[in-house]
Amino acid sequence: MAVTLALAGDTMLGRGVADRLADSHAPDAFVSDGVRAYLTEADAIVLNLECCVSDRGSPWPAPGKAFHFRAPPQAADLLAELGVSCVTLANNHALDYGYDALLDTRAQLERVEIRAAGAGATLEQARAPVVLAVRGLRVAVVSVTDHPDDYAATPDRPGVAHADLPSGVPGWLMDTVARMHTESDAVLVSPHWGPNMTTGPLPYVRVAATMLADAGATLIAGHSAHVAHGVAPPILYDLGDFIDDYAVDPDLRNDLSLLFLVTVDELGPIRLRAVPLKLDYCRTVLAEGAERSWLVRRFVRACEALGTAASWEDDLLVVDLRARRGG
Fold it and tell me: For residue 37, is pLDDT > 90?
C-alpha cells in the first residue's frame, strides 16, 4: 500500500508567531488555504518543531546563545488543526526554556494527540522511535540532532536525542534504524544536522546519510540549514523552514522554501513532489511568480549537483525516488 507523507522543515512558533497565537490559533492566520490544500493530500504530516510549547521556564543559560524560542500552549492546537501527526523535537531549541518547558511540550502535544520523537524525560524516551499507523503502513520516525551537546538527555535528565555525527554515526543510532527496519514497514530518519544558512550538505552530513540509508532507513529528511537542499534518493538533505518570523537573507532567500510530499510503500520511497513556499512574517503561502521561478531553479540545480534530476510538473517539483527500492 502506498501512502503520502507531508514533510515540513523547521517550524518556529515562538516570538512573533507566539504573539499572534495569543489572539488566535486559527490555521488561516498562519498557513494559507493554498498550502493547507496540499497538506490535506497527505496521509500523515511530520515536521520539526523548533521551539518548546509551554508557559513556564527561564532561558537556557548557555554562553553565547542568542535565541530562545517558546510558544504558548495554543501552538499545540494550531498544529492539531493543521493535521500534524508527529513532530520531531531533537534540535537546538527544545530545551530553550529548561527541563520543565520540554516536559510541558510533550504534554501539550499529547493533549492534542500529536506524537513526538527526539526528546523526553530520560535518555530512553528521547531516543525512542515513534511508530505511526498510516493507512495500514507502519512508519517509524527516528529523530536526532548533532547540536548542542549540552541539550543531550541522560538516563536521569530530560533532553534531546544527541548524536555526534561529525565524529560518525553512533552505534545506538545504527542499531535503532536497523531494528525499526525489521519492526516496521518504513523508517523515516529526521536528523537536525549541520549549521544554519548553508546551501548544501556538508561532507560529514553526506557520510552520515549514506550510513543511515545502509542501516535500513527508508527515507532521510534533514533540517537545520533554514534553506532547502537538494535530494539524493532516499535522502532529503534539508527541508528548509515552514513557519517562522526570521529575518530574510537577501542572497540565500531563506523565506523561500518547500513542502515535501513523499509517496512511499513497504518497498521504499516512490516519488517526491515539492510545493514551493513563501514564508511571510508568521504566515506561509504558496510562492508565486519570480520568487517561485527562482526557488525552482535553485532546487533543480541543487539536485543536479547531487546527481538527481528534478522536473517541473503540474506546478510542483518532482523527483523519482525509486533508485533504492527493494534494497
Answer: yes
